[in-house]
Specification:
The chain is α/β, with parallel strands linked by helices. It has 15 helices and 16 strands. It folds into two domains: about 260 residues, TIM Barrel (Alpha-Beta Barrel), CATH 3.20.20.105; about 100 residues, no CATH class. Helix 10 packs antiparallel against helix 15, helix 13 crosses helix 14 and helix 14 runs antiparallel to helix 15.
């Protein structure tokens, strides 16, 4: 029996306020997981990531198996010690990266053989090997190995892909080593096809997992199709287990998915945007590179608690980004992660207090206003 447990503390419509207990600490949900693909959240110290309010981060099986290698990470005390992150870690199984390597991989019932994007060396990833790697990394939450169905895709191809993932899910469950405080999540697939999503949910529930992810969305199908898929599948997932929407997303995507009963999220958007000069604020996404900010002495966002807003002007941030200075990427990444964590804290409070509809309406009204006016 796994020691990974989940408590639903409050509900507001389909939305849930919960608490996930893991071997390395507790996660308040709804939660956003910053992406630390290669054992680092880019441009951030682990201590700084924690200061944003993040309680759990994501690592990646594919990247870490190639460099520095799962066995080496294990020899050095596991991923928590290796990267100096004492809190919970969820590891992606590698399925999404394997999908993106279509020109370098061969997929069979057994698993996937592929060439490294780093040096061309050949590797094999199977459900059993993925479970082994994630155990060596010491992930609190292990993800079942799956094929992330690409988009666009026909219903027939989506069905073939989903059923392969379900067979791999059974093998992942069989290979997973139970330990107190550790758990395995299954991944629902089926693209935008409701019947396939329902079949996948039924099969995953029959296998039995500690949590259930929804994969294969936010890959180009659009927000309306994503929400329609969630409307169909979320009620079919076990209500006493956490639900994780993989790779999502923009703040509006997260707010809509929380209202539909999703508990956990991850996305590279806040960190990647920070490195390219984009900042998320309550009112808009701001392109700091734009000339309108060059002489603006005001903070990026009034009232924000991050260092970028507390200590620096838009003009200075604009200068850093335009000059290609590393500090610009660091400050904007920090700001974006604070924005995401504050959004999650607001959602948690709204659900607990039974005022989520008002929170969502306020969020949408602020977004509609756009960025602050020129001085």
């Amino acid at each position: 029996m796994s020691g990974l447990t989940f408590d639903v503390l409050a509900t507001d419509g389909a939305a849930r306020r919960g608490r996930l207990h893991t071997a390395h600490g507790t996660v308040e949900t709804p939660a956003f997981m910053p992406v630390g693909t290669a054992a680092t959240v880019k441009a951030m110290r682990p201590e700084s990531v924690a200061e944003t309010g993040a309680e759990i981060i994501l690592g990646n099986t594919y990247h870490l198996m190639l460099r520095p290698g799962a066995e080496r990470v294990a020899e050095l005390g596991g991923l928590h010690r290796f990267m100096n992150w004492p809190g919970p870690i969820l590891t992606d199984s590698g399925g999404f990266q394997v999908m993106s390597l279509s020109g370098l991989r061969k997929m069979t019932e057994r698993g996937v053989t592929f060439q490294s994007h780093i040096d061309g060396s050949k590797h094999e990833l199977t459900p059993e090997r993925s479970m082994d790697i994630q155990r060596l990394l010491d992930a609190d939450v292990t993800m079942a190995f799956d094929e992330c169905t690409p988009w666009p895709v026909s219903e027939a191809d989506a069905a073939t892909s989903m059923r392969l993932s379900m067979r791999w899910a059974e093998r992942s469950r069989a290979a997973f080593v139970e330990r107190p405080g550790y758990g395995l999540f299954g991944i629902n697939q089926g693209s935008v096809y409701g019947d396939l999503r329902a079949e996948s949910a039924e099969r995953l529930a029959a296998i039995g997992f500690d949590g259930y992810a929804v994969g294969g969305l936010a890959v180009g199908e659009g927000q309306e199709a994503m929400f329609q898929a969630l409307d169909g599948v979320v009620p079919r997932l076990p209500a006493d287990r956490p639900r994780y929407l993989m790779g999502v997303g923009k703040p509006a995507d997260i707010v809509g998915a929380v209202a539909r009963g999703i508990d956990m999220f991850d996305c590279v958007l806040p960190t990647r945007s920070g490195r390219t000069g984009q900042a998320f604020t309550r009112r808009a996404v701001v392109n700091v590179k734009n000339a309108r900010h060059a002489a603006d002495p005001r903070p990026l966002e009034e009232g924000c608690r991050c260092p970028a807003c507390c200590s620096y002007s838009r003009a200075y941030l604009h200068h850093l980004i335009r000059a290609g200075e590393i500090l610009g990427a660091m400050l904007l990444t920090w700001h974006n992660l604070v924005h995401y964590q504050d959004l999650m804290a607001g959602l948690r409070s709204a659900i607990a207090e039974g005022r989520l509809p008002d929170f969502v309406a306020g969020f949408q009204a602020e977004q509609a206003r756009g960025d602050i006016e020129l001085p």
